[in-house]
Amino acid sequence: MTPPQRQRRYPNGQPPPPPPQPGQKKNPERLFVVAGKDGAERAEFDLVTLIVASADPPPSAAPEQAALLRLCTTPLSVAELSAYLSLPFSAMTVLLTDLLTADLVTARAPIVRQAVADRSLLEAVMHGLQRL
Fold this sequence. Notes:
Layout: H1 30-35, E1 50-53, H2 63-71, E2 76-77, H3 78-85, H4 89-101, E3 105-108, H5 119-131
Antiparallel strand pairs: 1-2, 1-3
């Protein structure tokens, strides 16, 4: 049995691309393009606010907005959307505010469960089980 032959990652003697410098960002202008003008009104979002798309992405939507609308066919939190799109929370709030004002998404607070169950409900369940 012969060992596998190694293949060069960069054929034809091409040098590898230089490593990024510490502190250098990939696309410094990208967040400004996504976020738009500074100082605009923003909706109040929490990391656990659930977002659901109410329409398909229009042809005029930005790529980030179209991707966000395709992801939100089921309820997703703002934190999940931020992770899936690799965008910071501040840029997500700007995108979501634009989509919310255009009525393309709906936002709702997560369902909070009560810490203690209602006593009358527990008694009704207990009596129902005893009757079985």
